[in-house]
Predict the 3D structure of the following.
Amino acid sequence: MKKRICILYTGGTIGMVPTDRGYAPKPGALAQYLKAIPDLASPEAPTWELVEMEPLLDSSNITVREWRAIGQAIFDHYDRFDGFVVLHGTDTMAYTASALSFMLENLQKPVIFTGSQIPLCRMRSDGRDNLITSLLIAAQGRAAEVCLYFGGKLLRGNRATKRSADGLRAFSSPNYPPLAMAGVEIRYDQAALARPAQKGPLTLAPFEAAPIGVLKVFPGIQFGLFEPILTEALRGIVLETFGAGNIPDGGGALLPLIQKAGKNGTVLVVCSQCGEGSVHLGAYATSAPLKASGAVSGRDMTTEAAVAKLYYLFSRGHSAAEVKRLMEQDLRGELTGE
Ligand code: ASP
């Protein structure tokens, strides 16, 4: 019996058309492009159905609302299909894949995000392989989680990050091995596929646009300038620090800010600007103020995963203390525990 796969098109380069303002998505265009790919009708291909989201967006415009709509579409079609391929713009694909990994609780089927750097209407499009291989991976069913396939690699969605603005191998997951490599054969890494157990029927976790922020530390940063935004309204901040979690602590300029965040109950999550490796609060004196203030270590999480996880935990109604505890726990394979 042939597997049935739902292709969900959200927008993004893969189905875009040229306009006088640059590439943009257009309703119906992707369906036409797919008709022109004979392999999609090959006996080797699974049966597939295209569902187009509305409106189609460049992924720079995707928000928590669209994450919810994508989650809802997967939930609504879950019983009719063996797997899902989500076609999405590359710019924020790692954020959406991370968000969906938290939103889809007890997911037992593959949800494969993919897209392309060159639209399908162009001769050299990378979209054909990305789509066809994603369809096969979804039909094989071995990676029953939210993944991202791009340029020959199947990555865990909440470990992926866009690393190239124009390369065809645009994504990597520096802190986690690829789940599979697609060469002549699609080879899965059985050990990498293991992750926290999911049991029970699929449920959709609530996702709200909780007021959170991302602050990237840089040499000479004037922390005082950021003080006005640190109100009680701001519930979480992902702080992108140097190396293993270090911040310029000379003169204690950051201290009042950290203290204010603590007083307001704002959760501070410490991530690293280095793609590879982990945060170790307290390894250097320059991370001591963060450790002392009760900031949370984002360990080896990507910023994308940390942002999505903050939205997820706040939307579930957890207290700040609970959010802090859960941020350091491995919920969907998004971080490496101690
Ligand atoms: N700007 C596009 C998007 O993210 C880029 C792409 O799809 O590659 O929608």
Observations:
- The chain has two domains: 4-204, 212-327.
- The CA atoms of residues 117 and 165 lie 8 Å apart.
